[in-house]
Specification:
Layout: E1 4-9, H1 13-25, E2 29-35, H2 39-49, E3 52-54, H3 57-62, E4 68-71, H4 78-87, E5 91-94, H5 102-115, E6 119-121, H6 129-139, E7 146-154, H7 173-176, H8 180-196, E8 200-208, E9 220-227, E10 232-238, E11 249-253, E12 256-260, E13 268-272, E14 277-280, H9 298-307, H10 316-335, E15 339-340
Parallel strand pairs: 1-2, 1-4, 2-3, 4-5, 5-6, 7-10
Antiparallel strand pairs: 7-11, 8-9, 8-15, 9-10, 11-12, 12-13, 13-14
Helix pairs in contact: 4-5, 5-10, 6-8, 8-10
Amino acid sequence: MKTLKVGVIGCGSIAQHRHLPEYQANKNVEIVAVCDPNEARVNEIAAKYEAKAYTNYEELLASGEVDVVSVCTPNYLHAPISIAALEAGVHVLCEKPMATSQEEADAMIEAAKKSGKKLMIAHNQRFVPSHQKARQLIESGEIGKLYSFRTAFGHPGPEGWSVDGKDSWFFRKEQAFIGAMGDLGVHKTDLLRYLLGEDITEVGAFVETSAKDFADVDDNAVCVLKTESGVVGTLAASWAYTAKEDNSTIIYGEKAILRLEDHPTYSLIVQYATGEVVNYELGKIQSNDEGGQSSSQVVDHFVESILTDKEPLITGEEGMKSLAVILAALKSSDTKQITRV
């Protein structure tokens, strides 16, 4: 089998904790290049992975050395770098949110179509065992008609995790464009679309900055969402859950309630209307805490989709639909009106 040559563009925390170690662990790839404008950082990472260091992504792409890149940069660079890579005939795994506007997302999808190369967005929540099991239960009719849901993704904020702490691009509007909603909320819109098997059509949202006085992006958001079949529920995304991460989802159906990642031991609890309760121990969700799942499976899935020439689970189109919900939430918060996606 062909060994894919990989370059990682952006050497911050997500590259260091996820992409680089997961590529290194995959026997079908070889990390040949890393890129970051911070020279000291990129040289250190290059030495660690025995890869070539670049401070300019255009030079990396022009080298013709790579088959695949991961784009792990600040949000505002996702689209331009992904498009440049696709136009250079390189497969792209892009971090979320895929872009900062609908136009950018469209341009990325178009570039992938034209080049015939794969574009995947790194929404890792679809690979969590409890989420996959819940989707099966919903699809099989086990839960009956769906009535409602609530999902949350919150932690104390990226300053504890980002390589640059409080000086991180995460908190700067011109680089991030969007805060907790782009960092965490978009993961949950993607998860809900995956679990429920339908799109979200309307959003009402409050998107605030209340916890991080040094940030000029949102750090606390609560949204009410409605799906195409009329299922309603809430989504919270926050950098203000100061003591403990919350990454839970609850689905309320006619025959049962599903509790996902809502218990320290059981990653999925099914509470049937008959009174029966089934607890599943399916392994921990990936998290930045010690003891979280070691691999997000995103890289392995992407590599496999290239080698077998199959569509990845989260295509550009899928990433765009999940981003569109976030863009609608921002509009709703600004206009104080329910917004159509």
